[in-house]
Hints:
Helix content: 25-40%
Order of helices and strands: EEEHEEEEHEHEHEHEHEHEHHEHE
Structural class: alpha/beta
CATH class of the largest domain: Alpha Beta
Radius of gyration: 19 Å
Number of strands: 15
Number of domains: 2
CATH architecture of the largest domain: Alpha-Beta Complex
Strand content: 25-35%
Amino acid sequence: MRALLLRELTGPAGLRVEDVPEPEAVEGLVVLDVHAAGAGFVDMLVTRGEYQIRPELPFVPGIEAAGVVRSAPAGSGLHAGDRVAATTAFGAFAEVAVAPAFVTFPIPDDMSFEVAAGMVVNYQTAHLGLVRRGRLAAGEAVLVHGAAGGVGIAAIQVAKAAGAGTVVAVAGSAEKQRVAREAGADVVLGAGEDWVAGVREATGGAGADIVVDPVGGERFDLSLRCMAPHGRLLVVGFAGGTIPTLQVNRLLLRSLDVVGVNYGGSLAFDQAFPAAAHEDLIAWWQQGLIDPPVGTVYPLEDGARALEDFAARRVTGKAVIRVREAD
């Protein structure tokens, strides 16, 4: 089969399309013919050797796949021919991949593989953060950083679908602000402006009840200044490159929570939440409450460029690698 193989940890430049053996069926794993694969921040870190998990070289990256089941474990509820989206333990950038059954989900017939591939990690992360870890209540105000990225867009849409009140988005360029607005944000602020004051104004002085922060650095510190009492700051990642530190007296003064949101890490000790989240997400998609925007779609041969564009912050929406054409 054709696959994007990583032979050295030199970033996306280390990827090459090669013919490699197909993965074998293993108990508990679904084998699927991949039509589309999501590309994101984790994949870019993996190619540099900067992710916490470092498979032995050479290997095929990719943790989000959408395609058609070839075989599935008995009792999984999945059958050959089912259209699915899945989280893989790497290997998604290939014509055939394997995934655990508990993170392989049926998708509607009218959902494209490109959309499905873009829903897996970002929307599951947003649901885990806002609904489960953040305990979002109806009418609460939500602040979303990195609002034109995959997680940011997912957070805007999941927040609105789950009943949030005002959703405030912070994004960099005018183009990224447009993307955040189209994703459904009620108020869009520029990263270079005084967005702390903007959040206070947008919430009538109350502040944000929940902050979704995949950026880190100064965004984390400044967010604490515009949160409502009993607010929850969701730590999703550090795309800005700096891991912040915290003087915990700032939490005490306003009774704030700082909450870690790790989708992949949570799978190790709770295998039930992904299916429940997927049920909500598909229902919201069918109701038109969420609409995952697919950004650039790259053929497998140009898969390295997808991660290069991501590293250079040229990607809005979800970058997708088309592995094969749909039937």
